[in-house]
Amino acid sequence: MTISEYVSKMKGGAKSPPAGPVHDLIWSWFGAVIGIGLCSYLSSRYFEPRDLSLLIGSFGASAVLVYAAIKSPLAQPRNLVGGHVLSGLAGVACYQFFGETIWLAAALAVSLAIVVMLVTKTLHPPGGATALIAVIGGPKVHSLGYLYALLPAGAGAVILLLVALIVNNLAEHRKYPEYWL
Q1: Intervals of the chain under pLDDT 50
Q2: Exposed, middle or buried by CB within 10 Å (0-12, 13-18, 19+), for 149?
């Protein structure tokens, strides 16, 4: 392959998809408000006073998938919950083994999370951030050890899922999930 051919692959060529209908925008907004709001409320009210959390940054990206891209394979329940839990485990393991060299632990955490999600058919892009947070999240996150994979990663993902099941099925034209396993 020549350099010109290689560079020409980066031009793309497909047309951008159209914007969704207004009613989908409203349902997506509503789901995200409820899902992230519930995680935030429970975190501030019950978990943070106990030096725990139920909210991590990667849930923002998960909300985009489970409330706005509900037909995507990346948004299905197995991917949402499995992706966060397995990536959390990968991130904690990399921090525990390589945490003295943060740049290495971070790189290994994200790359290991990707491999684990691919092998287990739980690919959920926010899982990469969940793994990275396990490494760079600071002393509070590090003190959780492997519990981080269950709380906040797993429990928060389950809350987002429960809200997605309720909100996405309220509208006649929406159906979630496409499949479970």
Answers
A1: none
A2: buried
On whether residue 8 sits in a domain, the answer given is no
Residue at 120 is within a domain: yes
d(C-alpha 83, C-alpha 154), whole Å:
9
pLDDT tens-digit readout, 125-140: 999 999 999 999 999 9
Question: According to the 3-state scheme, what is the secondary structure of the chain?
Answer: CCHHHHHHHHHCCCCCCCCCCHHHHHHHHHHHHHHHHHHHHHHHHHHHHHCCCCCCCHHHHHHHHHHHCCCCHHHCHHHHHHHHHHHHHHHHHHHHHHCCCHHHHHHHHHHHHHHHHHHHCCCCCHHHHHHHHHHHCCHHHHHHHHHHHHHHHHHHHHHHHHHHHHHCCCCCCCCCCCCCC
List phi, psi (to 5°) of 69.
Answer: -115, 55
Domain that holds residue 29: 22-167
| pTM of the shown model | 0.93
Query: Per the domain annotation, does 59 fall within a domain?
Result: yes
146 in any annotated domain: yes
Q: How many separate domains does the chain show? A: 1
Q: How much is the pLDDT for 105?
A: 98
